């Protein structure tokens, strides 16, 4: 009988596809056919890296709080959201540079949603690459029989891939919501998206408990599905309202 | 509609450059991870596992469980340290390399000024044959050996010869554009792997030196690249350059005549109230050398044009063409191919032409972007690789944005390499421990 120890490559490739599935599918379906969205997604990926580096620097800056998980997540999420808002401000500023910039930044309700989605996809892709793919690829690409002491039920890399997938979907949904909130200056909505992001990130603290990864996975996926449905409903409503206003 | 078409073309043009760069980076990363030459084909399962570990170019760090170092691991560590010391000696040779680049660029500029174009082309042709034949053949041999594919040397030589000659023809003669682009990307990836033998420190120094040199060569009035561009503009000729051209028309089949640049096909021009189509000659902006993207086209500046009256019923079927730079020629990729050239057509005396925009990017950009990412992969890991690759692509987008704003020829290396190097350092020093900490504790953000 073949086990994961005899087919490490299959487990590795499977986990890789699992973690990247959402971003690849949605990226290929929505973003790749639209060159301007690809540019936006690339810029978002860059800013995500920048945000993570700022968060890392902040993590180093206060050594006593390095092991305080809640603080680490709070500061990281805050920086990520701040960077996303800074991106929005930067795009608005760039619009003043003439028609050329409008090759990448389009106006309109649907275009705004697509731009937000592209930003979220860039965030999601980089989050998977940095938090999962690169770590696994560097160290245990061919040795997949690993189980964390706190998570003996699920293979560590399968669990990591599942979490990475959930958070990539979260970023895409948050991108759609947040960008529209920034555009309409809906501060309640902005806080709402920040709270969602913080809440879903805080849910991962359950992984630090022994045997916690199972229920943490359930909670995270439940929240992500709920967030995705909210984002979908909001997008539909937003487009309808914009069409009514235009009419 | 015309404005939307124009901006869509600009975005497509940008992306048509970014995709091959990403492909080149990925290909060079794969080649950088190719098995060493010391590896030989084995069939035993245990040796196969060892062989798979040889295949991995990245460091092995004990992440979750720290194992005590064995004598074999210690010996390996000492051997790597010794090799690293030797490679650092290569810093001296890096200085020589930079001097060679500077000297050779001036030689090429002088040769072009004295109309030795054939000598330049001959040198480039020989270089491409060498890269494809020797480097490509070496990698092909290692690949075949590592996969235990039985190939005799006669077949191997024929295979390499065919691949090399096909690539040479695709680059310097006629070929479908996608084939030409594919081989250019392959050549760039192969050239970037040459720097595998150079030490990490030497490579970083080389890249820093190239940033400074590129800025001087393109922007300074005394720079050889600016000199080349000015000479080409005076003669109203194409610049001898080994460039990646995003123009979808087949390579080597452009029929633009020298001296009078004519647009062959304009695809999907916006219809105007006057439905007539007429031939129009186009004069490019010769004074700047490279064309800049006239992104301020308005509806008044658009009309539909076709150079072939018989094509008036065709819509969106003919590929756009370069308006000012005819068939590709070559310059040494080590010297001057860092210019970003945005080619567009402009009607002389007419303000109502809408054209497709396409970009030309020097092959040297591909090479050194790949060198940077390959070095970050070797010395850091996948995390540094991804961060560096994103930074490089973002730098290229910034360069293109500046090109739109300033409407001047710009070097493509400085911004991208600077971003890449800074991000690599930040990723190696701060991001990696942070991400590892989050990963170990199962935290996600």
From TrEMBL, chain A:
One of its GO terms (biological process) is protein processing. The chain crosses the membrane at residues 9-31, 37-62, 69-93, 113-135, 156-181, 187-206, 213-236. It is a multi-pass membrane protein. GO terms for cellular component: membrane. Keywords: Membrane, Notch signaling pathway, Transmembrane, Transmembrane helix. It comes from the Eukaryota. It is found in: Membrane. Signal peptide: none annotated. InterPro entries: Aph-1 (IPR009294). The keyword Transmembrane applies. Belongs to the APH-1 family. This is Gamma-secretase subunit Aph-1.
TrEMBL record, chain B:
Keywords: Endoplasmic reticulum, Golgi apparatus, Membrane, Notch signaling pathway, Transmembrane, Transmembrane helix. It is found in: Endoplasmic reticulum membrane; Golgi apparatus membrane. Belongs to the peptidase A22A family. PANTHER family: PRESENILIN, PRESENILIN HOMOLOG. This is Presenilin-like protein. InterPro entries: Peptidase_A22A, Preselin/SPP, Presenilin_C. It holds the Pfam family Presenilin. Residues 322-333 have a biased composition (Low complexity). It comes from the Eukaryota. GO terms for molecular function: aspartic endopeptidase activity, intramembrane cleaving. The chain crosses the membrane at residues 12-34, 89-110, 122-141, 153-171, 178-195, 385-406, 412-431. One of its GO terms (cellular component) is Golgi membrane. Residues 243-333 are annotated as: Disordered. GO terms for biological process: membrane protein ectodomain proteolysis; Notch signaling pathway; protein processing. Coiled coil: none annotated. It is a multi-pass membrane protein.
């Amino acid at each position: 009988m073949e086990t994961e120890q005899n087919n490490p490559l299959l487990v590795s490739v499977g986990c890789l596809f699992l973690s990247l599935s959402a971003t690849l599918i949605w990226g290929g379906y929505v973003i790749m056919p639209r060159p301007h969205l690809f540019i936006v997604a690339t810029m978002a990926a860059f800013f995500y890296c920048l945000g993570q580096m700022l968060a890392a620097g902040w993590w180093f800056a206060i050594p006593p709080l390095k092991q305080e998980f809640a603080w680490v997540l709070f500061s990281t999420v805050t920086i990520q959201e701040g960077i996303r808002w800074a991106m929005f401000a930067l795009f608005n500023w760039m619009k003043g540079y003439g028609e050329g910039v409008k090759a990448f930044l389009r106006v309109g309700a649907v275009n705004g949603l697509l731009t937000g989605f592209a930003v979220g996809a860039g965030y999601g892709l980089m989050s998977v690459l940095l938090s999962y793919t690169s770590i696994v690829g560097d160290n245990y690409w061919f040795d997949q029989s690993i189980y964390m002491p706190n998570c003996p039920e699920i293979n560590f890399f399968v669990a990591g891939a599942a979490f990475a997938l959930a958070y990539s979907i979260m970023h895409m949904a948050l991108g759609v919501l947040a960008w529209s909130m920034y555009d309409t200056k809906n501060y309640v909505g902005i806080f709402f998206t920040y709270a969602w992001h913080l809440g879903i990130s805080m849910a991962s603290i359950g992984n630090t408990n022994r045997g916690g990864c199972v229920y943490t996975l359930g909670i995270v996926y439940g929240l992500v599905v709920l967030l995705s449905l909210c984002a979908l409903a909001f997008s539909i409503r937003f487009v309808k309202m914009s069409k009514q206003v235009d009419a | 509609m015309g404005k939307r078409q124009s901006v869509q073309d600009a975005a497509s043009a940008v992306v048509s450059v970014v995709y091959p760069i990403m492909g080149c980076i990925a290909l060079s990363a794969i080649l950088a991870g190719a098995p060493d030459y010391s590896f030989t084909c084995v069939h035993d399962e245990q040796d196969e596992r060892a062989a798979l570990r040889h295949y991995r170019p990245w460091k092995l760090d004990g992440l979750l469980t720290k194992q005590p170092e064995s004598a074999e691991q210690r010996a390996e560590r000492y051997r790597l340290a010794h090799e690293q010391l030797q490679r650092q000696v290569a810093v001296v040779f890096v200085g020589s390399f930079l001097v060679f680049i500077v000297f050779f660029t001036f030689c090429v500029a002088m040769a072009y000024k004295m109309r030795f174009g054939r000598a330049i082309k001959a040198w480039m042709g020989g270089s491409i044959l060498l890269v494809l034949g020797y480097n490509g053949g070496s990698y092909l041999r290692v690949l075949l050996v590592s996969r235990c594919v039985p190939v005799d040397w006669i077949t191997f030589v024929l295979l390499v010869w065919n691949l090399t000659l096909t690539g040479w023809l695709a680059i310097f003669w006629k070929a479908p554009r996608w084939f030409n682009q594919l081989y250019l990307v392959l050549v760039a990836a192969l050239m970037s792997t040459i720097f595998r033998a150079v030490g990490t420190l030497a490579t970083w120094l080389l890249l820093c030196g190239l940033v400074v040199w590129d800025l001087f060569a393109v922007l300074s009035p005394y720079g050889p690249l600016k000199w080349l561009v000015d000479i080409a503009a005076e003669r109203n000729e194409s610049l001898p350059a080994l460039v990646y051209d995003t123009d979808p028309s087949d390579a080597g089949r452009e029929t633009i005549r020298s001296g009078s640049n004519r647009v062959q096909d304009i695809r999907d021009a916006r219809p105007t109230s006057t439905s007539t189509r007429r031939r129009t000659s186009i004069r490019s902006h010769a004074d700047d050398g490279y064309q800049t993207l006239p992104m301020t086209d308005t509806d008044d500046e658009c009309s539909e044009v076709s150079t072939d009256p018989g094509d008036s019923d065709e819509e969106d079927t003919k590929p756009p063409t370069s308006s000012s730079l005819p068939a590709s020629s070559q310059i040494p990729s080590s010297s001057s191919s860092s210019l970003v050239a945005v080619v567009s057509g402009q009607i002389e005396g007419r303000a109502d032409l809408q054209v497709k925009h396409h970009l030309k990017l020097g092959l040297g950009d591909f090479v050194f972007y790949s060198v940077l990412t390959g070095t970050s992969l070797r010395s850091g890991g996948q995390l540094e690789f991804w961060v560096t690759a994103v930074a490089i692509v973002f730098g290229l987008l910034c360069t293109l944005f500046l090109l739109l704003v300033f409407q001047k020829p710009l070097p493509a290396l400085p911004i991208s390499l600077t971003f890449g190097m800074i991000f690599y350092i930040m990723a190696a020093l701060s991001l990696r421990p942070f991400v590892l900490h989050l990963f170990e504790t199962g935290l996600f953000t």
